């Protein structure tokens, strides 16, 4: 009794309360790998913000388009990430040359993402059922 939950972000994963996820890796078929907040921060830390694999990115949040081959390179050459196997599997099975990262915790509407990559990203992300979209 009397337990506090001040450190929710670092709470243990529980099957009853799956984390909603902080970052989603999505392929063109709609397969997804969700990272929680700590995993997302770790991944960006280990991979220099996925810089080497980024084809196009929103300048104000973590949403981006990644090149499949480069993602695999980054995952293999960098220090081991606890979700590297899941990410590599998704990436290897991606039906196109790109995979997409959606920042699930930002309020960003990507207004400054003025690149053809953004259109591609929208098309890939919006086909995914169950992803929370900002109200129009
Ligand atoms: Zn954005």
Key terms:
136 residues, alpha+beta, 5-stranded antiparallel β-sheet, single chain, binds zinc ion
Task: Summarize it.
This protein is of the alpha+beta class. It contains four helices and five strands. The N terminus is likely disordered.
Structure description:
It is a single chain. This protein is an alpha+beta fold and 136 residues long. It has one domain. Helices cover 29% and strands 16% of the residues. It has four helices and five strands. It has a five-stranded antiparallel β-sheet, with helices on both faces. Helix 2 packs antiparallel against helix 3. The longest helix has 11 residues, at 116-126. 28% of the residues are buried. Mean pLDDT is 85; it is low at 1-15. The structure holds zinc ion. Zinc ion (ZN) binds at residues 58, 60-61, 63, 108, 110, 113.
What is Rg?
Answer: 15 Å
Mean pLDDT: 85
Task: Provide a count of the helices.
Answer: 4
Bound heterogens, unique: zinc ion
- Number-wise, the strands total 5
Tell me the β content: 15-25%
Helix/sheet category = alpha+beta
Low-confidence stretches: 1-15
Give, in spatial order, the strands making up the sheet with the most strands: 2-1-5-4-3
Number of structural units classed as domains: 1
Kindly, what is the distance between the CA atoms of the first and last residues, rounded to a whole number of angstroms? Answer: 43 Å
Shape: globular
